[in-house]
Amino acid sequence: MSKEAFMKKLERSLVKLPVAERQDILEDFHEHFHVGMQEGKDEAEISAALGSPNQIAKELLATYYLDRVGEESNVGNVFRAVWAVIGLGFFNLVVVLGPFIAVLGCIVGGWAVGVAFIVSPILVLLNVIIYPDTFRLFELFASIGLTGLGLFISIGMFYATRFIVKLFIRYLSYNAKLVKGGLKHA
């Protein structure tokens, strides 16, 4: 593949990156071609040695999104990082998506329980308004107790969510390095 074709494919594949980041990457690859040609290689040899522009772009996008989620771990950045790492290979569809869905289910379930417990007195009062003959003092006090428990669960879920997200980001980074072949034996 010629240098021009390689660079066009790479640029099209990196369209999701900011312009400045994309330009830095493209300059680096122009430098690869320049150095290779000085060593006496032709463009086809250099592009073959570099690999597929699409795979290079997938790896660079995964690295970029993992760096972004490391700087600011909001929901959008986490989802972008997960999809970028999944895009590295079919193997990651099972290895990343399965644990991601399980972790997401646990987090959503924990938050749902906490919020449901917190709003339980409102539900008891709504029940009293709709069916006034069914009021029992025990239900009111039990719902107040559940509110306290819900507050503790929500506080715990806040810290658990932060911890789990950081842990999952580390797992994504490890997986991306493993797929790219970047793990080094210490």
From TrEMBL:
Keywords: Membrane, Transmembrane, Transmembrane helix. The keyword Transmembrane helix applies. This is Membrane protein. The lineage of its organism: Bacteria, Bacillati, Bacillota, Bacilli, Bacillales. The chain crosses the membrane at residues 81-104, 111-131, 137-160. It comes from the Bacteria. The keyword Transmembrane applies. Pfam families: HAAS (PF22564).
